[in-house]
Design goal:
Layout lengths: L20 H13 L5 E3 L2 E3 L3 E4 L1 H8 L3 H13 L3 E5 L4 E5 L2 H5 L8 H4 L3 H35 L7 H11 L3 H20 L12 H6 L2 H5 L19 E4 L5 E4 L1 H9 L10 H13 L2
Antiparallel strand pairs: 1-2, 3-5, 4-5, 6-7
């Protein structure tokens, strides 16, 4: 994809990662590679600001090492610049702030557009009013989708408005996440229904389920099976990122054992060191 161009806003100079050349290199490559309009790839809907890729493709496109790419992606996820949905074949990366960098707002400042007549200005006001009405309809639809998921959730709940506000403030990518909630809950209900005597963790409070992104933890893509603790082989209750950005799924017992060692910085430790720390914590009981 070498045709066309992208915008590079001067506010990039104030970006928190600007003085890390490898981060800038990778981020600009992602901006260049992301879809500028919706499309499809092998039956998958790819929206504006998204791209399908993998570590080896990113390495080939940037000439950065796999380890460097993992580290940079982990940092970009933590600062909510992007989200990653991974399968065993590829990753779908969403640039959360794509519109901030690639919006069409500058077109309004061209000389031709500055010569607006009073009639055009009136039309613009009417369009703004129509846009506000459309936004109100979208907000009602969004609230309705969230409320459907909330009502379906079997665990304890608080107030709907409180939980929705908490959801939108906690997750910058909440618009992308919203359609995933109801299918995740439905799969978990079915998984618990078909337990056949096997252990199933209790439903968490809905607010905790939202905060910890449990829909990612409990439901593997296209599966009704939960993620398993890497150490005890029990159903995991939470995941942590290691120093390379890899997800480590842990059960409650292993999380308690890790905290018993007095450590807390998962993101600064390789996975092997985290596993050793958990085992050390278990030995201290």
């Amino acid at each position: 994809m070498t045709q066309g161009w992208i915008k590079l806003h001067r506010k990039l100079l104030k970006w928190e990662w600007y003085h890390d050349s490898k981060m800038v290199h990778l981020f600009i490559y992602l901006l260049l590679s992301a879809n500028h309009e919706p499309g499809r790839w092998r039956g998958i809907e790819i929206d504006r600001g998204q791209l399908v890729t993998g570590l080896h493709s990113l390495q080939k496109g940037t000439n950065l090492s796999i380890q460097t790419i993992r580290t940079c992606l982990s940092k970009l996820k933590k600062t909510q610049e992007l989200t990653i949905q991974s399968t065993n074949r590829f990753s779908l990366i969403t640039l959360c702030n794509y519109e901030d960098y690639q919006s069409n707002c500058d077109e309004a400042n061209s000389p031709a557009n500055k010569q607006l007549t009073n009639k055009q200005q009136t039309t613009n006001k009417q369009l703004t009013t129509n846009k506000n009405v459309k936004n109100e309809k979208n907000d009602k639809k969004t609230n309705s989708i969230f409320e459907e998921s909330r009502k379906l959730y079997p665990g304890d709940k608080r107030g709907s408005e409180t939980e929705f506000t908490y959801f939108t403030k906690t997750h910058k990518d909440w618009r992308d996440v919203l359609p995933l909630l109801k299918p995740a809950i439905e799969q978990q209900i079915l998984w618990r229904k078909n337990a056949n005597g096997e252990f199933r963790p209790a439903w968490k409070q809905f607010k905790s389920w939202i905060f910890n992104r449990i829909w990612e933890l409990e439901v593997a893509l296209g599966s009704q099976q939960p993620q398993i603790c890497i150490i005890d082989k029990k159903p995991a209750t939470k995941f942590q990122m290691d120093a390379t950005g890899k997800k480590l799924f842990l059960c409650d017992d292993c999380l308690v054992a890790f905290k018993r060692t007095g450590r807390s910085a998962f993101g600064r430790m390789p996975s092997t060191e985290i596993e050793r720390a958990v085992l050390d914590g278990k030995a201290k009981r």
